[in-house]
Amino acid sequence: MDEKIYVKRVLAGDLEAFDPIIEKYKNSVYRVGYWLSGSQALAEKVTNKCFVKVFGNLSNYQEKELFSFWLYQEVLPLLKELPILEDGKGFGNWLSDNPHYMQLQEEILSIRKETRVPLLISYLLIELTDERKAVLSENSVREFTGYLLEAKKIIRQNFVSQNEKPTDSCLGVEELIAYQNEILESPEKIRMDDHLEFCPVCRELLQHLEREEGMLQHVLQAPALEDDFNVKVLAQLTPYTVKTPKQRTMAYQLGVIGVMISVIVGGFVVLPTVIPWTKMVSNYLIYGSFYNVWAEGTYTAEDNDITVEITGVDVDPLHMVVHYEVSSEVKESGAGGVDRFTVYAVDEDGKTYPMEAASAKDSLMEKTGASQEKKRLADTNFYVRAMNETALPDKFTLIIRYHMLNSRGGDWEIEVPIEYDKAMEDIEVLELNEILVVDEKIELEILSIEKGKYGSRLKYDVRLKEEEIERIDTNLKRTNQKYDEQFFMSYHDVYASVVLVNNQNEYLIPIGYPSINNMSSLYQIDFSNVYADQDLKGIKGVATGDEKLFAEIKAIYYHEPGFYSLTVPLEETTEKPLNIDLDGYTLDELSVKKQEGEPTNVLITGQRTQNYKSRNFHWEFFDDNGQRMNVYNIPDYDWFDRQEVNRKVELINVEVDPEESQLMIQATQISNDYFFEKKEHRIPVN
């Protein structure tokens, strides 16, 4: 989207041209306000005020400026005036169906303003470079990076406490956070690369951190404004009035005529260059193949001593594949890392079409150990698809904006004219409708697979069985609390991870389009044509199209309300038997340890009774009067781990005020996480 076009139209009196600008930036502004104030109403009110201000100041915008940076400079002073919520009280309950998300919410809101603002700017204003983000936060780049790391350490404090170093030689969690954020000096990074290559424990811990990173992004970017927000803003605005130009003098008109004559004469020089270019326009491949309408080597952009070139574009009915190369004469420009970019399309009338893009290498946990040729398969291209595939015209300009290359921020923009015939060769579509039942509670149905030249698309559905839904609804109604329908329905949601694999146990790398996080009843996952190993750590090769493929179920997740409760007398006891069944775990023994002048320790141990299902219990604790106690449960098991059956584990380990005489314990939320072995659940898809 070229905002400059819309700014000109707005200033020319077209009020509706301001709508695309609101649409593009409204949720970024709203989320910053939301996570500062903790109030939907305040955040929406200040977001409205921000766009009224932006509209009024559009005439001050200079075309040479980056529009997004200019806009955020206009609105951040208003956002920073919001009252800062620091204790989480009164915050909306939109995350209440996921205990882990709720914990992240509390940790974010515990961060002081000086540190929270850089965190929000970093995660929500993603189109900006680190240098510009630092300016907006009123810090140097060094200070901005420091505040950002401080925020991440605070957010992961609980994770750090539960994951001590397995051995003295292993990497600490803080080291892995620095490694994950790619801010290490070269010798330190080499040392950690070497350690990770031979230490599966640290690699697993790094994967856990990456999951935490994904959850943090999801939580921060979850709230969104209602669809009618744009209309409300536009209703408050008055269109700009176009000033009538003064009558030009004769000298001015003669000057214009002179310029026109110069252009006509100059055209005889330019014309021979234009004619071959126009011939190239008609020389395209039909049936869905993209064709280049540019001279070779002209689709480049340079910034920050780094040059990027678009070397080609391929297409099948499912994906566009953009190939590019990055080069730099500066050795210190950095290497590796994940390239960041945004993509959108514009037609001949200036209408924009939202696109989403993702690189196959974003899904790889590490890229060491593969040959350069195999690494190149994932490193030199990215996949693009239209958010509304049916609306995309046959001819458009693809706008590609890189925000980070070779681990360095910058601003690279390339426009690629594209034309293709939608009536291309048919893709292979197989309707499957195969159903798998898990734990007598969940149905997973593989619906179909579509296979194209450059990738595949798998569609499936996962749902709770009617009996499980009825059990959950019945238990909720037994609480005698007033819940709305949306609250009930949140417990009907179930999610599943499904991958495509061949007979050689090689897995097609999924394309991590952002929309994959928009959970719905029907799942659609796109896969590249590049194979990796089971853990997505090493490139194996390219699919030929004739391999036998299977849909493999990796994991299934769903939440339910908790109804387990017990009252513990706070009297000294050791290994008191309990024998409480938690459907996958048992509560076996209770120990209460009292010590003069010290908090009373309550420890409840149990066992895991099912090896394919993990259950994470969100326990809440109450005193004699039924008042909720602010105590934190520190068990020694991790809900991501697959532990052995009958292994002794701590499920509750808390310390309470020594003055309390009894402790009421209740599980208010339970997450059910099913993890399956390789080949455990495979369904043929061709």
Task: Give the topology, please.
Elements: H1 3-11, H2 19-37, H3 40-56, H4 67-79, H5 99-109, H6 113-124, H7 130-136, H8 141-155, H9 157-162, H10 173-180, H11 186-198, H12 200-220, H13 229-234, H14 250-282, E1 300-303, E2 306-315, E3 320-327, E4 340-346, E5 352-358, H15 372-379, E6 381-386, E7 395-405, E8 408-419, E9 428-438, E10 442-451, E11 455-464, H16 466-477, H17 485-490, E12 494-502, E13 507-510, E14 522-532, E15 539-542, E16 549-561, E17 565-569, E18 573-581, E19 585-593, E20 600-608, E21 613-622, E22 648-656, E23 662-675, E24 682-684
Antiparallel strand pairs: 1-2, 2-3, 3-6, 4-5, 4-7, 5-6, 7-8, 9-10, 10-11, 11-14, 12-16, 13-14, 14-15, 16-23, 16-24, 17-23, 18-19, 19-20, 20-22, 21-23
Helix pairs in contact: 2-3, 2-4, 2-6, 3-4, 6-8, 7-8, 10-12
Describe this protein's structure:
There is one protein chain. The chain is α+β, with helices and mostly antiparallel strands and 686 residues long. Helix content is 31%, strand content 30%. The chain has 17 helices and 24 strands. The strands form 4 sheets. An 8-stranded antiparallel sheet has the order 1-2-3-6-5-4-7-8. Strands 9, 10, 11, 13, 14 and 15 form a 6-stranded antiparallel sheet that branches. Strands 12, 16, 17, 21, 23 and 24 form a 6-stranded antiparallel sheet that branches. A hairpin with a 3-residue loop joins β9 (428-438) and β10 (442-451). α2 (19-37) packs across α3, α2 (19-37) runs antiparallel to α6 (113-124) and α3 crosses α4 (67-79). The chain starts with a helix and ends with a strand. The model is unreliable at 160-165, 243-297 and 365-378 (pLDDT under 50).
